[in-house]
Amino acid sequence: MNRRLLLAYPPYKLYQTVPPLGLGYLASYVRENQEDTDARIIDYNVEGSLSSFYSRNLSKDLEPFDIIGIGFMTPMETEAIHLARVAKGMGKSVLFGGPHASALPEEMLSTRLVDAVVRGEGERTLVELCKIWTEDGFGDLSEVDGVSYIDDGSVKHNPDRSFIEDLDSIPFPARDLLKLDAYLVKYPGLVFSEPTVNIIGSRGCPNRCIFCASCVIWRRKTRFISPENIIEELESVINDFLIKHFNFNDDTFTLRTDNVIRMCEMMIDKGLDVKWACSTRVTSADKEMFEMMKESGCTRIGLGIESANPLVLRNMKKGITVEKASQAVRLAKEAGLEVVSYFLVGNPGENRKSVKDNIDFILKHELDSFPGVVEPLPGTELYEIAKERGWLRDFEWSQLLKAEDRTVVRTEELSHKDVETLTIVSKIVLNRARRGLTVGVGSLLHHLSHRPELAGRILFETFNYYANPDKWT
Ligand code: B12
Ligand code: SF4
Q1: Model confidence over 250-275: pLDDT tens digits?
Q2: What pTM was estimated for this model as a whole?
Q3: pLDDT (tens digit, 9 = 90+) per residue, 308-350?
Q4: Which atom of ligand 1 is least distant from the CA of 10?
Q5: CATH for 184-393, among 1.20.1560.10, 1.20.58.2140, 1.10.287.70, 3.20.20.70?
Q6: Measured from the CB, is residue 199 less than 6 Å from ligand 1?
Q7: Angle at 262 between CA 260 and CA 268, to 5 degrees
Q8: Is residue 129 in contact with ligand 1, taking CB distance under 6 Å?
């Protein structure tokens, strides 16, 4: 029987966004493996503003479909539930997937708006669900690995779905179902100012950083797409969409140096003439690889450093050292790559001294980085630690990562307000140092007006920093 599947991505208030690749993969996999199912995608991030989502006639969007599959991250929970409520009200079958629902299947099912939560990798599970769908809804869910559902009033969690071993066997994401142009109009200049496509070369990360939720979906197993397959995907994007700028969205793109070097060689040999960027860990920094990357068109690399304090790095189980981070920045810069790095404030062990270490590191290495607050995402070790130690404020999941510099987690030495204040002061100080006095003062005024309740603290800490930076500990 013919089924109509809508994969929907709720809106999220972020200054920039990119197409949801996960939904693109699901759609292409269904298209290839379940011919009687017509899959479509709506990303509400490019369909209007966050507020217009609530006034929009969603029933009109959902009407043509039988199954509504909603993928989302934690800050989008409220909007995902709103969409599910409209869909259920119309008698549709509703599925939740993605990192938030995978971490909290019971909570999601307790809304009674969802037929099943698809945990982890979704392609094969979704195809099986489409197979058992009839006009009466999903049939027997008990045999479908990777789903949680309610049976006879109680929640059932079927065994985890095994991973697709050969990632090359998954068709390229259905970019034809995504309004690629809309992202470029609404969110220009995400990585490059030219039209850019996001792409991945691997799934999963083997590391154990306590704040990271990648493991919720990928369970710390890493699989790689072959360099040949990546090149084929790049060529297909160049041919189909005339786009030659790419941003690799992998957790740790350079985990396999040999794969990266092979991919770069092919890019050069084929004269692809692309520009690209990626993110990785400082532990996989390699001179030869960085040089090849540069030669093949890579202009920018993101490094997850997170902290320049040894104790905080140890506590967050980052598995890197400050020295290694310095070396990676140096190697990347020597190869001619622009370095973007990420720093977090509020992991266990954080105090004034460790925040100052971050500022010193960023200044010493002339990085254009601004620390952000860490948030306890569901399914992470940080959430468990913070809960056990009583470090969490009362909060709703949908609040997380919604507003800049707001956190619900404290540390041994820093209160919630301290974590927020020190993050803001880091930004002011770094703006002043890297971009000049006017920008520094502008940054101070901006934060004072946005956080009037923290104004006294911000002024006090900023004054203290400049009075004697070396004693700001
Ligand atoms: C690239 C990326 C981004 C990009 C692009 C996001 C996008 N629109 O796709 C950018 C930089 C914009 C981004 C932003 C954010 N991100 Co992000 N992001 C990632 C990253 C590194 C890769 C995502 C990806 O493409 N994966 C590849 C595809 C194949 O996997 P997938 O999307 O998970 O989809 C699969 C399954 O989840 C499942 N599935 C997903 N949806 C559905 C729906 C249905 C119906 C079904 C059946 C299955 C299903 O099947 C898919 C195929 O197997 C992940 C980490 C990771 N490794 O997954 C973090 C991650 C998803 N991001 C995260 C977060 C927190 C954010 C932000 C909230 C951060 C912030 N400061 O605001 C924002 C949210 C913005 C937004 N609305 O998009 C967290 C999410 C945790 C959580 N509990 O929500 C992750 C896990 C990072 C982490 N290490 O903790 N992100
Ligand atoms: S290295 Fe990156 S992706 Fe891997 S666990 Fe740590 S933060 Fe997550």
Answers
A1: 999 999 999 999 999 999 999 999 99
A2: 0.96
A3: 999 999 999 999 999 999 999 999 999 999 999 999 999 999 9
A4: 77
A5: 3.20.20.70
A6: no
A7: 105
A8: no
